[in-house]
Design goal:
The chain has about 525 residues and is an alpha/beta fold. The chain has three domains: about 170 residues, Dimethylsulfoxide Reductase, domain 2 (3-Layer(aba) Sandwich), CATH 3.40.228; about 130 residues, 3-Layer(aba) Sandwich (Rossmann fold); about 110 residues, Barwin-like endoglucanases, CATH 2.40.40.20. It contains 18 helices and 19 strands. The longest helix has 14 residues.
Length: about 525
């Protein structure tokens, strides 16, 4: 997020797109509802009629996979009616002519044909967002989990730049992270092309710094593989071993049959987790890990805020904290690691990570800090881009994008569009929530079906329904609801015994290599 949580209270307009916020990020969802109650305008863009839609001043129900076209259409209206922020663009943004040229053809009428959204609603949403005066964008995996996910994100940034909605309270481009410490994991270099703090492996100066910190070990100059590419390589026999920590790809990765094939082909699979997940059941070695309440450390939340967590109870059995397990393994492999506490690990992080350099456990005991926090006397950075952008000349650049159709689209053989997502009562692969009391509210897979489609198939609420894609089939109970439009179904992906990701394709965005979970062409029939 470019802005912190407090910033939500300053927003005059809230644009929520591709985010079922009240179910997947309920705390922020409650903040958005509170701000709406206190006078802010709310624009909601989502193919499903999510809870926030009933509070929206404007609800845009775009066809899944058409987000670039929709937002380009809004920018067309803003430029056509001279609602853009000329002073902000002149002072702080480059490549304006290219953006104008790209969105010129995205008239509301043309965009309506692509997205299914009435032209007048596109115009109304554009005017409300541009008027602000402080407008904030919130999105999640409904934007990123497409083969055009990077272009979706670029287009959201274009909209904010066009109207000058960055660098002050109540504005911003705010992606809501999917898990409690995914921001921290990315900050720590758990991406194939960066070290900690998003320092590129291709930068020779950074490699030298890391080499010195890691006792003279040569650092790779080329990026590694993303998760989907790892599975692809394992399936071909090019990767012989995998070490999986706190992740359950047998439920969460696309094309479940392919994932099983890839994992079973490995010579060695090690899984480090707090439960014997569907993935851990395939492992050669399982390393029992302590959960969040059983260890010391830090989490970095979705607003880049680093927070201390403190051990409350001892871990059961032989379970250990992650840092202890990794240190023990590294020592057995010859590394001169001498860490004795989570605090020492954090100090090592701060030494090589500019955005964390000013942080320490002593400072975090006094309260959380948002990065970048480069020096011990720096207060942290709740809001990014207040004066300049993180480019050499301090200016941002428009990145205009043309709309491209998804990797597959409904056709005669597979006439429905399926999308996957989360529920309020479950978290990710369900490894924790299906073992807890709230998980009892939803115990098995269901499939949301529009009433018109249900009538045509003679389908009643609770009937078994089979959904089939080019990858495979899955069955669940029908839930007849107008939350989904006709010829679209929604499946939650939390249920390993009936994995919705059997349906999804292992196709990826060419830039981010994020899988396209949100669009699958399927056939739907009574089971």
């Amino acid at each position: 997020m470019t802005n912190d949580f407090k910033s939500i209270k300053k927003a005059d307009v809230l644009l929520v797109i591709g985010s079922n916020t009240t179910e997947t990020h309920p705390v922020i969802g409650a903040m958005i509802k509170e701000r709406k109650k206190n006078g802010a305008k709310l624009i909601v863009c989502d193919p499903r009629k999510i809870e926030l839609a009933k509070y929206a001043d404007v609800y845009l129900r775009q066809k899944s996979g058409t987000d670039v076209a929709l937002v380009n259409g809004m920018m067309h209206v803003i430029l056509r009616d001279n609602l853009h922020n000329e002073a902000f663009i002149a002072e702080r943004v480059e490549n304006f002519d290219a953006l104008k040229a790209t969105v010129a053809s995205y008239t509301p009428e043309k965009v309506s044909e692509i997205t299914g959204v009435p032209a007048e609603l596109i115009e109304e949403a554009a005017r409300i967002y541009a008027a602000g005066p402080n407008s904030a964008i919130f999105y999640t995996m409904g934007i990123t989990q497409h083969v055009t996910g990077t272009n979706n994100v670029r287009t959201m940034a274009n909209l904010a730049l066009l109207c000058g909605m960055l660098g002050r309270p109540g504005t911003g481009v705010n992606p809501l992270r999917g898990q409690n410490n995914v921001q921290g994991a990315c900050d720590m270099g758990c991406l194939p092309d960066v070290f900690t703090g998003y320092q590129k492996v291709s930068n020779p100066e950074v490699r030298e710094k890391m080499k010195a910190a890691w006792n003279g070990i040569e650092m790779p100059a080329t990026p590694g593989l993303s998760v989907v590419k790892m599975m692809e390589a394992a399936g071909k026999g090019d990767i012989k071993a995998l070490f999986i920590m706190g992740e359950n790809p047998m439920v969460t990765d696309p094309d479940t049959h392919h994932v099983r094939h890839s994992l079973e082909k490995l010579d060695l699979l090690v899984v480090q987790d707090i439960f014997l997940t569907e993935t851990a059941q395939l492992a050669d070695v399982v390393l029992p890990a302590a959960c969040w309440g059983e260890k010391d450390g830090t989490f970095t939340n979705t607003s880049r805020t680093v927070q201390r967590v403190r051990k409350a109870v001892d871990a059961p059995g032989e379970a250990r904290a992650d840092w202890e397990i990794l240190t023990s393994i590294a020592q057995r492999m010859g590394a001169p690691w001498t860490f004795k506490s989570a605090s020492e690990v954090f100090d090592a992080i701060a030494q090589v990570t500019p955005s964390y350099a000013g942080m320490s456990y002593a400072r975090l005991e006094e309260g959380p800090l948002a990065w970048p926090c480069p020096t011990p006397d720096h207060p942290g950075t709740p809001i990014l881009h207040t004066e300049k952008f993180a480019r050499p000349n301090g200016k941002a650049s428009f990145s205009p994008c043309e709309w491209k159709a998804p990797h597959e689209w409904p056709d005669e053989e597979y006439p429905f569009l399926a999308t996957t997502g989360r529920l309020l009562y479950h978290y990710h692969s369900g490894s924790m929530t299906r073992r807890s009391a709230p998980g009892e509210f939803v115990k098995e897979l269901y499939v949301e079906v529009n009433p018109k489609d249900a009538a045509r198939m003679n389908l009643s609420d609770g009937d078994r329904v089979r959904v089939t894609s080019r990858r495979g089939s899955v069955e669940g109970k029908a839930k007849i609801t107008d939350r989904v439009p006709p010829e679209m179904v929604f499946l939650p992906f939390h249920f390993g015994e009936a994995s919705a990701n059997i349906l999804t394709a292992a196709v990826i965005d060419p830039d981010s290599e994020t899988p396209g979970y949100k669009v699958s062409a399927v056939r739907v029939e009574k089971a």
